[in-house]
């Protein structure tokens, strides 16, 4: 019997000594598969461990999301007016899709254990993006507004970030967010349906917090 534990190299050598060809082949295949599975498990473990460490590092840091805001602004004011008609349609479609992708990427970096500043910055950046779309001047921003009236991801992204916030965090430092969100809701036109519900959700937390303080 081979000693335990046995290295892959030793196991292969022991198998080579078996005189039954069929048994030897079956065991050789099993050893190779075992090695492959071991490598796969090791790789997956290392990947998962690295992702967890990356998340911990991200949660401990303050993310600004300024790059995301700049990307949207660059898309809104990209080349458009001088394009031929079919190119304009393609540009609007691509710009709309890119903006929604940028919007939905923001909540992916925000979790309940993230620091408050990151949550604050994420939500405020989404408001700024919405404000840029609503206030945008020119043909392309106007086309984007028309598309956002049909299928915008902004409110969905805001709801995801909001869900990471605790009542204590909202009561402590969300007044600026509420005011900016209420202004956007007032000026949004046909864009971003559902913003009014978000405003009400924030206000309800603030109202309940004040009621609790009065009871104390």
Textual characterization of the structure:
The protein is an all-alpha fold and 216 residues long. The protein folds into 2 domains: 8-54; 62-215, Serine Threonine Protein Phosphatase 5, Tetratricopeptide repeat (Alpha Horseshoe). It has 10 helices and no strands. It has helices at residues 8-16, 21-60, 66-76, 85-105, 116-135, 139-148, 154-162, 167-173, 175-187, 195-215. The radius of gyration is 28 Å and the shape is elongated. The mean pLDDT is 85.
Short description:
By secondary structure, the chain is mainly α.
Looking at this protein, list some descriptive labels.
216 residues; mainly alpha; Serine Threonine Protein Phosphatase 5, Tetratricopeptide repeat; 2 domains; elongated
Report the CATH architecture of the largest domain. Answer: Alpha Horseshoe
Q: Please state the average pLDDT score.
A: 85
Order of helices and strands: HHHHHHHHHH
User: Would you give the CATH topology of the largest domain?
Assistant: Serine Threonine Protein Phosphatase 5, Tetratricopeptide repeat
Largest sheet, strands/sense/barrel? none
Task: Give the class-level CATH name of the largest domain.
Answer: Mainly Alpha
Strand content is under 5%
Helix residue percentage:
over 70%
Topology overview:
Blueprint: H1 8-16, H2 21-60, H3 66-76, H4 85-105, H5 116-135, H6 139-148, H7 154-162, H8 167-173, H9 175-187, H10 195-215
């Amino acid at each position: 019997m081979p000693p335990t534990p046995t290295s892959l190299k030793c196991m292969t050598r022991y198998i080579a000594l078996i005189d039954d060809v069929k048994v030897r082949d079956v065991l050789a295949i099993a050893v190779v598969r075992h090695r492959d599975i071991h490598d796969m498990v090791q790789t997956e473990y290392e990947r998962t461990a690295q992702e967890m460490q990356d998340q911990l590092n991200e949660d401990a840091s303050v993310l600004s999301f300024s790059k995301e805001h700049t990307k949207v602004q660059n898309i809104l004011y990209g080349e458009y007016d001088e394009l031929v008609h079919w190119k304009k349609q393609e540009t609007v479609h691509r710009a709309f899709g890119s903006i929604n992708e940028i919007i939905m990427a923001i909540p992916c970096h925000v979790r309940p254990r993230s620091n408050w500043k990151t949550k604050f910055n994420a939500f405020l950046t989404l408001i700024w993006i919405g404000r840029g779309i609503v206030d945008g001047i020119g043909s392309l921003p106007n086309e984007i507004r028309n598309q956002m009236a049909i299928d915008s991801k902004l409110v969905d992204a805001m709801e995801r970030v909001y869900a990471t916030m605790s009542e204590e965090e909202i009561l402590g430092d969300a007044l600026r967010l509420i005011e900016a969100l209420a202004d956007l809701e007032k000026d949004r036109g046909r864009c971003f349906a559902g913003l009014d519900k978000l405003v009400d959700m924030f206000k309800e937390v603030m109202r309940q917090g004040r009621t609790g303080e009065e009871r104390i």
